Amino acid sequence: MTPAPAPTTPEARAASAEAAVTSQFTGRLLGVPGTHLAQVSHPAPPFVGGSWNYWWQAHYLDAVVDAGLRALRAGDREGADRRARLGHRLVGTIRVRNVLRFTNHLYDDMAWLALAVDRLRLLRAALDRPGTRRLRTAERVLTTQLRSAMTDDLGGGLFWSTRRDFKNTPATGPAALHLARLGDTAAARSLVDWLYDRLLDGERGLFLDGIRLDGPARTERMVTDVYTYNQGTVLGTLVTLGDATSLERATHLVAACRDHLTTAGPPGSQGRPLRTHGDGDGGLFTGILVRYLALAAQHPGLAAETRSAATTLVDDTVDALWWGHGPRSDDDPRLVFSPDPVVPAAASQPPGSTVELSTQLQAWMTFEAQAVLRAQPSTR
User: Fold this and answer.
1) Cα separation, 158 vs 240, whole angstroms
2) Cα angle vertex 231, ends 318, 340, to 5°?
3) HSE (CB half, 13 Å, CA atoms) of 19?
4) What's the CATH class of domain 227-374?
5) Where are the domains of the chain?
6) For residue 5, what pLDDT band results from cuts at 50, 70 and 90?
């Protein structure tokens, strides 16, 4: 494969990824008019809605909102409104596909949807569109569920699932960010403080996965995996809180990501893109971190050195993902992005192979983060 040409704007890259995802993965649920949902893979059955992955849909909604905000920054209110209406249909269709409810058994899933719904509400407000019962209901129901998972077990934090045997960063981080954005800074700080007390790896400055409660005795067992997205949600919460302690923590966290979560760039590159986590759920992880690095890069309370480090992490990851992209096949010009920023898509996802929504959303989210980073004022 011939590497893709480098000269292109962040907005053009984001638009290309949006078109690639929309054309290959999205459609009506079972062909029903007025619905909208994303397939989890491509190629897929002709009707959308067979396989189901709730939290991937939440991140698809986040990306749709990103595209709407990009259109709004460009002065394209019609394009922004079209994406806002699409997002509204998506929220309704998620509920329908999820057996007529917004809740499920995983609190981290619900936190992701709560964050995306809140951003959609803000996009609609920027377009002078009033809130809707659908969005208000989703936010209320999801927030209630998240608060119910905050208990004194293990000294604080948030349970991962309704089994209530695992408290972890994947649930606590996005829930803290959601509460911070709602203005409940006390609850958000308590969750962040718990993460720093119980799950911070002091040597690397990164957050571990969580603590399980095993067996009838509920014996504590640390799960020491380190994932990029866990750092991202904590970083997003810290810059949203914005107090001196939080910004100092954010400074150290950006440096830890730079020092421990990057890899060598593609051939001929001097950059250090963030490492990724393959496909499946892991195909989303690094895109989430990039989203919140872009927020940190624009925060005026952070030192210039920290903002520059965050910007470089975003730019290097974007450059690597763009370097490796290519057409779906010789007969299909639609683009595919590699799950690995240093392996071209032609090698990681050759023609005829199945491509997962998660990895393509990751690229789209990453490109949107750079587009937002180049724009002022910052958007969340």
Assistant:
1) 19
2) 35
3) 11
4) mainly alpha
5) 151-225, 227-374
6) very low
Nearest in space to 40 (alpha carbons), one of 259, 355, 316: 355
**Mean pLDDT score across all residues of the chain:** 94
Q: Which two tokens stand for residue 323?
A: 């370097």
Q: pTM value?
A: 0.96
Q: Is it true that the peptide bond before 43 is cis, omega within 30 degrees of 0?
A: yes
The two most distant CA atoms of the chain are separated, in Å, by 59
Phi, psi of 271 (to 5 degrees): -80, 165
Helix (H, G, I), strand (E, B) or coil at 162: coil
Axis crossing angle, helix 169-182 with helix 228-241, rounded to the nearest 10: 20
C-alpha 371/C-alpha 380 separation (Å) is 12
Q: Are strands 206-214 and 166-168 parallel, antiparallel or unpaired?
A: antiparallel
Structure confidence at residue 376 (pLDDT): 57
Residues in the chain: 380
CB-based contacts of 56: which residues, under 8 Å, 6+ apart? 38, 40, 284, 357, 358, 361
